[in-house]
């Protein structure tokens, strides 16, 4: 199988070098998975624009979706990253463990996590029960569209890591 190394700044296109510089300023480093996207001359800018677009979901809700999707897709890189980001967005260890198991003690968040898991597991063919619970919890049709877009964002990153297996540069997520 082809081995993927993480490209350095010098190994990527000039446009991606500028993005690396901005990521270094904002985060203090370039996450390995973002660097891997830079194998594509246009991929990193395209993906970051998509990932950072406005959404009706809160950052906390996005992190819950990111974590459950990564758990289902078996992406250790994204599980590890989103445990860190989940804490930065107000989740504690117990809440993050619940989400990784596909649930939340918060009823609204539970409906979101359950539907995100169902969408991921069943490739968009979610159960009527989970869709109804999502709307009953107070989510809207706009939220449903944004949830699907969030699942697609995270699925793309999960697939990229699952195929490239670049090193995880976040504290490694514990096995559950």
UniProtKB/TrEMBL annotation:
Residues 44-114 form the Carboxymuconolactone decarboxylase-like domain. It holds the Pfam family CMD. InterPro entries: AhpD-like, AhpD_core, CMD-like. It comes from the Bacteria. This is Carboxymuconolactone decarboxylase family protein. It comes from Chryseobacterium candidae.
């Amino acid at each position: 199988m082809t081995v993927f190394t993480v490209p350095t700044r010098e190994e990527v296109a000039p446009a991606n070098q500028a993005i690396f510089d901005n990521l270094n300023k904002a985060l203090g480093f370039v996450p390995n998975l973002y660097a891997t996207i830079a194998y594509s001359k246009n991929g990193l800018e395209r993906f970051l624009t998509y990932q950072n677009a406005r959404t009706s979901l809160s950052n906390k809700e996005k992190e819950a979706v990111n974590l459950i999707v990564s758990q289902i897709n078996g992406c250790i890189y994204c599980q590890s990253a989103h445990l860190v980001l989940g804490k930065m967005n107000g989740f504690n260890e117990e809440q993050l463990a619940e989400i990784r198991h596909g649930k939340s003690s918060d009823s609204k968040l539970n409906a979101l996590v359950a539907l995100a898991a169902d969408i991921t597991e069943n490739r968009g063919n979610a159960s009527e029960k989970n869709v109804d619970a999502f709307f009953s919890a107070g989510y809207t049709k706009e939220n449903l569209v944004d949830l699907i877009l969030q699942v697609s964002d995270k699925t793309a990153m999960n697939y990229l890591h699952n195929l490239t297996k670049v090193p995880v540069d976040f504290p490694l997520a514990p096995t559950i």
